[in-house]
Amino acid sequence: MSNKLKISIEENTALITIDNPPANTWDLESLSFLEETIKELNSNKEVYTLIVTGKGEKFFSAGADLKVFHEGGKEAAKKMADAFANAFNELSNFRGFSIAAINGFAMGGGLECALACDVRIAEEQSKLALPEPKVGLLPCGGGTQQLPRLVGEGWAKRIILGGEHIKADQALMIGLVEEVAAPGESLEKAFILARQANKQSPISISACKELIHQARTSKESYKNEKEPFVELFDTHDQSEGVEAFLEKRDPDWRNA
Question: Which of 81, 89, 107, 164 could join 226 via S-S bond, C-beta 3.0 to 4.6 A?
Answer without folding.
Answer: 81
